[in-house]
Amino acid sequence: MDAYYAKTSGDLPQSVIVGSMDAPEYTLPAANWIAYMPEPLLYVGKDNVPKETVDAVKKRKNKAHIYILGPESTVTASMEKELNRYGKVKRISGKTPEENAIAFAKYKDNSTKFGWGITEPGHGLTFNRTDNVEAAIASAPFSHMGKHTPNFCWTRERCPNLCTST
């Protein structure tokens, strides 16, 4: 996708999202953002950075803005340190998948314009369960059409209190 975007737009976005391929419940909230914005979602393992991810961040010539989505239990501090070799790294995280999705919805980097920055009432939201990844992926394009909405994922039968109190 990174190469396709560069070919069609004539340039690579400097910002990238990095998520865990081993803990998709923490990475899933990125689906709505990448449907809406040009940043690619790149993957890492808990203890390794795949060659494809390294190649993608290297193309940004040490000027990448790398946003890790997930806590250190999903993308370790050593992976963060390795990614730091290719640009500026920031971590967006919560302890649970629910808290992680909320942290991503709230996050905004004003210097790069990356992130939803939703911190007050009155915005649309998309809700998905982590045990139904197919529905979450299918709903992602709706975050680009009409109202742009972050994806809140949860693992329980009911929406956690975090969604109503945060």
Structure description:
Helix 7 (133-139) links the parallel strand 5 (126-129) and strand 6. The chain is an alpha/beta fold and 166 residues long. The model has no long low-confidence stretch (mean pLDDT 85). The chain contains eight helices and six strands, in the order H-E-H-H-E-H-E-H-E-H-E-H-E-H. The chain has one domain (2-156). The chain has a four-stranded parallel β-sheet with strand order 2-1-3-4, sandwiched between helices. It comes from Marinithermofilum abyssi. This is Cell wall binding repeat 2.
Taking the sheet with the most strands, its summary is: 4 strands, parallel
Q: How many domain modules? A: 1
Distance between the termini: 34 Å
Element-level helix/strand string: HEHHEHEHEHEHEH
Radius of gyration: 15 Å
What is the structural class? alpha/beta
Strand order of the largest sheet: 2-1-3-4
Poorly predicted spans: none
Q: Looking at the structure, what is the overall shape?
A: globular
Query: What is the helix tally?
Result: 8
Strand content: 15-25%
Residue share in helix: 25-40%
Please tell me the overall pLDDT.
Answer: 85
The number of distinct β-strands equals 6
Protein name: Cell wall binding repeat 2
